[in-house]
Amino acid sequence: MVRQLAIPLFIILVALSSCNKDDELVIQGAPQIELDSETGIYTVKTGRTVIVAPSYKNMEGAIFSWTVNGKLYSTLQNLEFSSEEPGDYFIVLRVDTDFGSAKEEIKIEVVDRTPPIISFLLPPQGLKVKQNTDYVLTPDIQHSDLPDFSIKWEIDGKEVSTETSYTFNGKELGEQKIKITASNEDGMTSYDLTINVIDKDPYVVSYLLPYYAAKENIRYTSPGYSVYLRPHLEYFNNPQFVWSVDGNVIEGENKQTFAFTPTQPGEYDVTVSVTEGEFETKAITRNISKEATTVSTTVKVICVSGTPKEKLRPYDSSCSHRSNKVYEFTPAPGQFVNEKRAKYSGNEKTMDLACAYAEGRLAAQEYVSLGAWGGFIIVGFDHSIKNQKGNDYDFAVQGNAFATSNEPGIVWVMQDTNGNGLPDDEWYELRGSETGKSTTIQDYEITYFRPGGSYSNNPWIDCFGKQGIIPRNMYHDQEYYYPIWKPESYTVRGTLLPSTMHPQGHAPYQWGYVDNCGEDNLAGDSYDGSGQMNGFKISNAMYPDGTPIMLDYIDFVKVQCAIQEDHPSFGEVSTEVFSIEDRNSIRNK
Amino acid sequence: MKFKPKLLYILTTLLSLSLASCMEWDYGDVVEDFNATGSGLFITNEGNFQYGNATLSYYDPATNQVQNEVFFRANGMRLGDVAQSMSIYDNKGWIVVNNSHVIFAIDLNTFKEVGRIEDLTSPRYIHFLSDEKAYVTQLWDNRIFIVNPKKYEITGYIQVPDMTMESGSTEQMVQYGKYVYCNCWSYQNRIIKIDTETDEVVDQLTVGIQPTSLVLDKNDKMWTITDGGYEGSPYGYEAPSLYKIDAETFTIEKQFKFKLGDWPSELQLNGERDKLYWINNDIWSMDVTANRVPVRPFLEYRDTKYYGLTVNPVNGEVYVADAIDYQQQGMIYRYSPEGKLIDEFYVGIIPGAFCWK
Questions:
Q1: Alpha carbon A440 to its chain's center
Q2: Between chains, do B15 and A572 touch, taking CB under 8 Å as contact?
Q3: How many CB atoms lie within 10 A of CB A363?
Q4: What pTM does this model have?
Q5: Is A105 in Cβ contact with B294 (below 8 Å)?
Q6: A475–chain B nearest CA distance, Å
Q7: How far apart are CA B305 and CA B262, in angstroms?
Q8: CA geometry: angle B204, B209, B215, nearest 5 deg
Q9: What is the DSSP annotation of A133-172?
Q10: Which of A167-171, A377-381, B352-356 has the lowest mean pLDDT?
Q11: Please, which pLDDT band fits residue A278 given cuts at 50, 70 and 90?
Q12: What local confidence, expressed as pLDDT, does residue A79 receive?
């Protein structure tokens, strides 16, 4: 052994002698690497070069190698790296000398360049403005904090401003095109905005549809059953209403809601004329005066013949206790919307695909989350659910409430009055413990807007002009909380209940709501978190003014989230629905 | 939403105190006779908060066999609400059931209850000092309870200074000489030092927002990892950090910063206590002598919810608990020390902590 060691020792001595400078023996140790980054992580944008310049010790005669995924990338002392492809690049630096080697792994995060992103929340019907009136336009611009940021506004190719806001005043009637161009060190973006200049305020009087594919401005009812007509308004400050049926003005009907009750089958044209009430008639000359703007919308009410009972679809042994079809799934933005963990494929880009998603979830008794306030689901059955008019519940909805976590949803029911198998008839809200209280807001409306960019909060505006957001949270990182199958904006209407948040959670309401540990909570095993269920009676159906309506049966059920509230840690309050089942058919089987 | 991160417990504990009087043990009729000799791994499954569906699982790595609900099956009663942690001392398993305000002691082979310490506030962890003395940390309480494990009795309290009941949180404990160190997590930012002879807090060290866990390595360095709070938290929100703290001098030696928005947790050591593991979306590992956190994780994120972590002290195998969606049965993944998947098995709802027998 001693003899064998002698030769390597000799070689080392010879090697060491080469370090003999100025008659001083320097013993070189193994090389050492000290990175110029505390974390070993470097960030660079696509197409740009990052230089990694470590400090080295004992590097005489060193050979450097930088390898990316096992492939040699560079043999220089410093690394210059760039890539057009964003992503994480793991790079191993190795330094070899005669006296040893050293190795470090670094990561280069190549991220996309971030030129400005310009976004505008536009009204659902496009941007219409009144002639000769100032409108301040302030787009949301992301990445305006990067160096070299600038913005330019152009109308018809002519620069009109370089500020982040622009005051538009349309002199000419018709369409005007504004081009906004913003740039920063990462690039340039432009946004084309079309403004329609009109001679009066862009008032809107329209009707929200009972379901998304219903025909516009057609409503169905049976003789003796009321249709409560309530137009959706935009831009009015002080609207005044005049209602007429087939051209005949109905005296004394001057509210936004009009209950029309045909007694005979037939078709009726019901028109509402809405006038801006703050306008004062102004004389222009002795012979000419300017009158207030009136907007009229007509809805055709079709009163079908025959009694509802003739259209009842009875239950038979081949029927399913549970709902068998989802007709519409319109959640409000929410943390579980589009999320893979909630088993979205990510491809739900149409209402049909969204309904198929929800249908599959309900079939498996897995939760469908309705998102924030107003989000809803409409389901149907292969038979009519009868009103037993007794103490038993007619149908039940499964949620996942427990003692301190209640996320109430309101239930609406519909009879297939026109018998076409579609939920395009009249919705009736089921009475609950909060009905009629001063804190309950009926006919509340919110318009949700698609966020300007991905990974952004979800803006909304309500019918009182109040604005807010459904914020993202750290637990749910999908690109959009906004349902990707919905258009750029959508309006939902329903009843708003106050939050029951208290420091320990969310208390339940007394009775009448889905996903709520109320008195109507049916016995069931709640241990797995999905057995909680509330019972409902069809005889609690009511008209919007609270008048009961006696329905002998129903064909469709809508569940709608009733609370608007967000907690930074737990996200928005959102009703969850697992299944909807006919209790009568279960009892009578 | 019904997502239940651990933070929810803070919000809801007050109510649970009032509910405590309604809690009853659910005794079944049939019990099983287990005889799990040899080494194995206990998994405490938290269950859904206030559902009383916490369970205990037992896994034998030699045979790859898992037995679920062993506490219920051996004792004919439910474990309770939110099983938080488990420790072994004196040949007994001590299961801390947070929202049932109890610690059960079980036989390690038969899983049968041999005793219980009741009337705790909101217990989180137990640390044994002797056969007759242990500390029990609490959430939403400004006291650490002193208990006598032999008599299953509460014998006293350590009052933690500058802590209200509402913001009270004491968590994991490690011992260095006669001192026990404890991280104060929820709405807190410090490590406290307790003299076990006087049962008093004698010193404290400020770290970042919400240190989640605490371990002591083979070089007598303590490590804690903060979660940084959350956006909108009244207590603040910052980039989390991993801290290396010298136990002798009780000073921070090094701070490793993470990115804002990261949420690291579950700091663990291997058997040699020379390698750290933690969860930060991915599973990470680092030598205790390292100067920086590796740039590449030990195990990559699998689009799920990693919730618990442990390392087999004997062979360095890594076990990861996956809470999936907090509703269904959770899953345990078992990896070789090199990160190769060896086995996977279902346990109870929300598996959160492990205990090696």
A1: 24
A2: no
A3: 14
A4: 0.71
A5: yes
A6: 9
A7: 14
A8: 60
A9: -EEEE--EEETTTSTT-EEEEEETTEEEE-SS-EEEE--S
A10: A167-171
A11: low
A12: 96
Q: From the list A403, A474, A528, which residue is nearest B230 (CB)?
A: A474
Q: Catalogue all structural domains in chain A, each as residue range(s) with its CATH number.
A: 120-198 (2.60.40.10), 204-306 (2.60.40.10), 310-440+497-587 (no CATH)
Does residue B220 come out as left (phi exceeding 0), alpha (psi in the -120 to 50 range) or beta? left
pLDDT above 90 coverage of chain A, percent: 71
Distance CA A224, CA A473 (A): 50
Pick from B120, B116, B126: which is nearest to B141 by CA? Answer: B120
Q: Which phi-psi region, left, alpha or beta, contains residue A546 (left: φ > 0; alpha: ψ -120 to 50)?
A: left
Q: pLDDT above 70 covers what percent of chain B?
A: 92
The amino acid at B320: V
Work out the average pLDDT over A144-163: 94
A345 vs B: CB within 8 A: no
Distance CA B92, CA B108 (A): 6
A566 interface with B at CB cutoff 8 Å: no
Question: Taking Cα atoms as reference points, which of A127, A124, A146 lies closest to residue A136?
Answer: A127
In this structure, the number of other CB atoms found within 10 A of the CB of residue B207 comes to: 22
Cβ-contact B210, B229 below 8 angstroms: yes
Whether the predicted pLDDT of B195 surpasses 50 = yes
Best residue in A55, A504, A576 for a mutation probing chain B (most B CBs within 10 Å): A504
Q: Where does the pLDDT of residue B3 fall: very low under 50, low under 70, confident under 90, or very high at 90 and above?
A: very low
Short-list A381, A382, A358, CA closest to A370: A358
